Amino acid sequence: MRCLIFILLLSLPAFSAIGFAAEPVERIAATLNDKIIFLSDLQRHQTFFENAGKNMRGEDSKTLLDRVVDNRLLRLEARRFVLQGPTETEIQQRLKVLRERFKTEAAFEEALGQTGLSLDELKQEIKEQLWVEKLLQERIHAFVFISPKEVTRYYQEHAADFGGKKQEEVEPIIRKILSEEKRMTKEMEYLARLRSHAEIQVNLQ
């Protein structure tokens, strides 16, 4: 009887003589709080939400995985704290911008096919991204404040970079630089707190 069962298993398409799965099994990049992040999730994030031209090799793949993990953590926070989610208009506007990253509509459709995403699934991903942006705006960016003393100190330390222009002339530029630095610092601190309470297992080599 056991011999008969074994022969039947080998005859099924999903099995082979050297293992159970004949079809390739998707590689797991990491787990986050027992939720799986597949290597294909990194590819999708890279294709549609990262700068064009990057590849996923060596350290780049690990760096990309870090950003995907951070993004997943922020998505969970957004669902908890952002009461007003993205509107359909906002989603369509972002989809339009995303489409324009590709040279042709055919290239966009090819990217969907390569990542295994349907248009509706991509729209859901866009919705999640917008939700994260709302979270960062409401909980971090809205509380970034640059004092006049900070502007003056930066101007004095970098006066040579402004070609002799007066502080009043370059103050908007200085405020933008300092605001971006503060936002980045606060985001990193926020993510560090989230990571400290998360269970993350990385499987990339």
From TrEMBL:
UniProt signal peptide: 1-16
SUPFAM superfamilies: Triger factor/SurA peptide-binding domain-like
InterPro entries reported for this sequence: OMP_Chaperone_SurA (IPR050280), Trigger_fact/SurA_dom_sf (IPR027304)
Keywords: Signal
Domain of life: Bacteria
Name this polypeptide is given: Peptidylprolyl isomerase
